[in-house]
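Self-study notes.
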Amino acid sequence: MCDKNYLVALHQARTQQSSLTPLEETIDTISHSLRSKGEHVKFTHHYQEAITYVSSMAPIDCIMIEWTPSQKEAICHLLKQLRIRHEKVPAFLLVNTHDEGKSIPAEVMSNIIETFLVLDDTTDFIVGRLQAAVARYEKIIMPPLMSAMMKYAKEKEYSWSAPGHQGGIGFCKTPVGRKFFDFYGENIFRTDMGIERACLGSMLDHTGAFGESEKYIAEVFGAHRSYSLVVGTSGANRTIMQACCTDNDIAICDRNSHKSIEQGLMLTGVAPVYMTPTRNAYGIIGPIPKAQMTHKAIQQRIADNPFASKALNSRPVYSVVTNCTYDGLIYNGDAIQQLLGESCDRIHYDEAWFGYSRFNPIYQHFHAMRGDKATHGADQPTIFATHSTHKLLNALSQASYIHMREGRGSIKPAQFSQAYMMHATTSPLYSIAASNDVAAAMMEGNQGINLTTEVIEEAVEFRQAVARAHQQANAENSWFFKPWNPEVVTDPRTQQSYDFAEAPRDLLVKEQSCWMLNPTDRWHGFEGLDDNWVMLDPVKVSLLTPGLNDDGSLQEEGVPAALVTAYLSSLGIVPTRTTDFQVMFLFSMGVTKGKWVTLMNSLLSFKKYYDADAPLSEVLPGLVETDPALYGTMTMQQLGRRMIAFLKKHNPSDQLNKAYSSLPQMDMLPRDAYTQLVKDNVELVSIFDLAGRTAANSVIPYPPGIPMLMSGENFGDQHSPQIAYLQALQAWDDAFPGFEHETEGAEKEDGIYHVMCVKQ
């Protein structure tokens, strides 16, 4: 049993000279009694201090507030702030006299559970009421699985089954094991148990506390059915595909898909037809045009595909769209359902990075589990959503959800469970499953909108701070980073327009239209966009560096983003993505104002060093150590100019744009290419000898993280953009050691990139 945390909010600090009032004496006695029982008691000595405390991340299981009639407004404000972060925590008023009790307004009464007149009850009775309320509170807030696991841990049972460490005791028998045990703490080991613990039910059979947890998760996320997984969203995606697809079927796939989707193609043997996203000059992944999702366009893609056109089942059985993209672009979910629903009865929204979407109105209509699940009827397509709860919600790594709204093409629970078990484990770490349970509980009720609003507020404040610094630099004929977002926003209620940097924060935090990618706007860099089709997620923040013109041509001078990322990384700040002139940061529930202010300071510091043309040995000594002969005497601007000159000469971004603008020839299905790999009918081929070869695995450059070539596709002739891009990357890596790109599916032999290809 964990010690509980009681907060006592006093009107003011006591003076040494004053004698104690009956209320003060009672508070002292209550505090002493609670502490004697092992509980923690925290005092604040004016209401503003209490407001600060309840607005922080401090643990609170109960709050007692000293009632002061002259401070009604302050107490009302305290309770309002309390309910933002601690929606259900029991709150008590401690009142001195009956007359004072008569002055308590309804607004206060509605936010507390009891009022104690200190002269009417004994201290023991009051303490008992407090502890009973805290016990009820714990039962209320703890979700089903976590509650069952905590109860199990308290029972201290002996086990004669796996796991062999037996509650961590096995680890304690050697010094290194003891260090491991002490580092993580006893509870994680006591709740690491085998599947024979019938008291918890079965994760594989969805019974007991596990089944109740999945029902609870479905209710919170607006699904007809939800599944909790401990194999990540890679496992979740493969599970859905295994449940939907077989040989001689057709799948409609977003080309901008996670590699687990390709793995699903390999496992099932389904024939893919691809929808291709757009890409702007900065390398930012744009949306799939609406026109590609029409029934006519899908049918044409099927007819043009040598494998899909021969499938026995001519109607696609599965479709998948990545929502949101890695760069933070999200689709109109209503429109996707309407368009793809004409061609397919099952639509999968891969929302690995978008699990919070249901809980803030700014994302209304732009996600999978939209609105009331009761309105989703049997005549509509079955909708799947996968969420990586560990990415931008609050769960342990490998935690993931599958959500389902049943309609046409629905899969019965018993049948779906067969695919679920195929990708699950019979030895799950229950703490991961429990974190899925807790992640849902944290988003229930007002908590979801409060948590997501906090993140959006922090992201907006950071964007505006960068935008103001950019404007100031322009006024001084200098440079600074520019946030990738609309430059002007309009309040739809008043029709008043604002520069983004000076727009009211609440407008940007609450108004969806401020984040739409309008076809006529130039800031986003995408041509031919559709109205009300895609919006930018405020919490995915891309910063642009100087160097590109609006038409995508390179300027004479610039600041390569790779250099910015190298500097930030040297300070322990790791961006999530870097292209030639873009650096991206994810704002999550763990981001604080102090964290982004530190980032802002670091960006200003980079500018100072770059403008001063500081030597690399001073700013990036770790880089200099990688190649002293190259970098030892070089300055920041010298390296920047050398990088810009390389980009002008080799233009890898242009090659990548060409590579993504058309689909390569498909020589064989992904499954057949994988079969060749298993049979060892493959070989590593130099990037200078790839003409006409068939890839045995996908080739995925990072950035942007989209397959440039899928397994079974042909590299084309020696002048193909796919080959030209890989050769440009090779030249970059040779020219700039320490700035190598990551290319999944390519590996170096003797300093040269090679790709695994099917033998000829």
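Second protein, same conventions, sequence then structure:
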Amino acid sequence: MNGFVQQANEIGGLGMVKAIMSAFDPSSVPVYAALADEFAVFDRWFASCPTSTQPNRLFVHSATAHGLSSNIRRYLVPGLPQKTIFDSIHDDGLSFGIYYQNIPAVLFYRSLRRLKYVNKFHSYKHAFKEHARSGTLPNYAVIEQHFFDTKGSPANDDHPSHDVSEGQKFIKEIYETLRASPQWNESALIITYDEHGGFYDHVPTPVEGVPSPDGIVGPAPFYFKFDRLGVRVPAILVSPWVQKGTVIHKPDGPTPTSEFEHSSIPATMKKLFNLTSDHLTKRDAWAGTFEKYFTIRNTPRTDCPEKLPEVKKTLRPFEPKEEVTLSEFQKEMMVLASQLYGVHPRRHLVEMVDRMSVGEASRYANEAVEVFLKNGRRKLQRLRQLRESNSNK
């Protein structure tokens, strides 16, 4: 596990060295501190591969990156073709929903752009609390972060240089909404990060006994086989069925080398929902699952806090800067937005995203998602009308 300091020094000097060897104290992240005390923390949850954001995010719902070993735009533009846990859930007649704030990153999965899923997307601001209050949350819900840091709506995704206190407020709101829902006693919330962000860790990454998901090899020059995991990432499991103060270590199986990683999410969903489809890949068939932590108790807890600590201090000494250029991750989200809009030829993508400011990108993303969903719902309505017309003949 050498190299953290050396690489940080090469990239950003001593200031970055100090940053990657540092951590937040509990008072700076009071919501996480409270959830860790009240529920369960994984101390061996790894990123699915030692790569960047998008490949690891793809593993969360599909147990593979389909050969994507870095954030390569030409693969992200058309969407990745693999089957997802959303498809498995839908095929068994269960429900899922995506609650988004700017733009849903799950639309990097090509299958989620299909017309039949268009009504699975909901505005977090307008729908999540209402669905929770009325007890109509779906079987499987994904809550997406706000990725663009604007004055009216600060980013809450914890990406640098966003204010981590906004992420704390976001998690607090989600928890308290679920806690007040009539569905609380049948709920579980898992919080994790796609990759470690360069921060130091002393635990070696598993490099043996990790199966390639589907045999797809990454591109030159590394030809990565996706046969090892990445660095550990935080993971918290919240549920009234989870014992207070639980620390979850290495899983019991299904193989001697199994670990908790992002593929553990679809693997656990398959067990919890008794899904009839096969595993998505060899990776979720191998990954550890955490359903047993919902069965230790005979009844749900009644002592779960209704409110979490207030987030009283900002962790950044300046306001959002809407005029700055985009991060690499934000540029990838703009590539996705342009496809949802359907008006920008691929040759113009690089020029477009490179000249955008954060404020412009935020507005563009909002408009692109609105156009995509409106067009999809209009087409779906026409199809239904056509079917009704044909059935009446």
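Instructor comment on the second fold: The two ends are 70 Å apart (CA to CA).
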